[in-house]
Amino acid sequence: MPEPVVVACGRSPIGRAFKGSLTGWRPDDLAAFVVEEVLNRVPALDRGSIDDLICGCGLPGGEQGFNLGRIVSILTRLNCPGTTVTRYCASSLQSTRMAAHAIRAGEGDAFLSVGVESTTRYLNGTSDILSCRNPRLEPGNPDGYPDIYIQMGDTAEIVAERERVSREEMDRFGLRSQERAVAAQDAGFFEREIVPVPLQDGRVMSADDGPRRNTSLEKLAALEPAFREGGSVTAGNSCPLNDGAAAVVVMSDTRARALGIQPLARIVSTGLSALEPERMGLGPIEASQQALTRAGMTIGDIDLVEINEAFAAQVIPSARGLGIDPSDDRLNPHGGSIALGHPFGMTGARILCTLLNGLQTTGGQVGLETMCVGGGMGMAMILERLV
Fold first, then answer.
1. Catalytic residues
2. Are 35 and 64 in contact (CB under 8 A)?
3. Which of 241, 314, 324, 369 is spaced 20 to 30 A from 347 at the CA atom?
4. Nearest CA to 227 among 177, 170, 284?
């Protein structure tokens, strides 16, 4: 059975929504630009041999609508099939998983997994319109359905309360994310994964907008709760709203070998979980346990762990649930989404880029990527570095 391998990956810098560097880019154009740049890293791959372009997008409507995956295929002149998938925050982890599954099934040898989100451009339309929600699923419904439409910030408050995560713990974790991201930027770490993006004013964006150099625990402690009066979840211990795109080239090991392409990593296993929507932040625990079991591993076998930082309120108990101390150097060693940003559809592929970059930098062999997903889910993937 052929094995799925990652042969190239890259991402745009992450812009702040509405006021950041990428507000002038349409999401389809940005994704197409990143795809072109990432494909340039594997010149031995005939672009006409790509079996499918699978695009992950959190809210695939408005400028992100019209089957965005096929749109990107056309814009890049690949003219391969294209499809768009949403699993909210894990959308481009899902797209990579789909590529891996197709390869293991013997139904293709070369796939593009793309992730994109432009929160800024939601102003031109989006897929999740409040007036379209099913009234049978509204809170307090008589049939006992869970609150599938619960806001993410409210889930963070619920998890923090149930798991007894204090405001100080969350703020310290948020500060840690910022400090590590700034240190990684200063060391040039992200340069190896970032595709510089030209801007309309003639500048070139080559670094993430997000990391804050001058924050402190005192500044974070002074922030007001963002979602609930008297709550503990703030803008300082949560991810911001963002724009960005990333792409991953997934091939069968047999085709890569035949073309003389050196794979970067092997996709070992994945996991997927479901739980109550209000506890969605703890989804990484079961999903990661599934992936570990399928790989025949334990958490002790993992050299680096990337848990998406939707909220410190959920990363902290998720890490503990996996047997990892939240302060462990293996966990998000170069900062995470609290500092870097979280363009929903991009993040799965972005974390894959950062995880492989981290493994290459530290000499680690095996990495775990995992995240919570709105609606009450979790997703995970284990990668083995090959070069």
1. 89, 342, 372
2. no
3. 324
4. 170
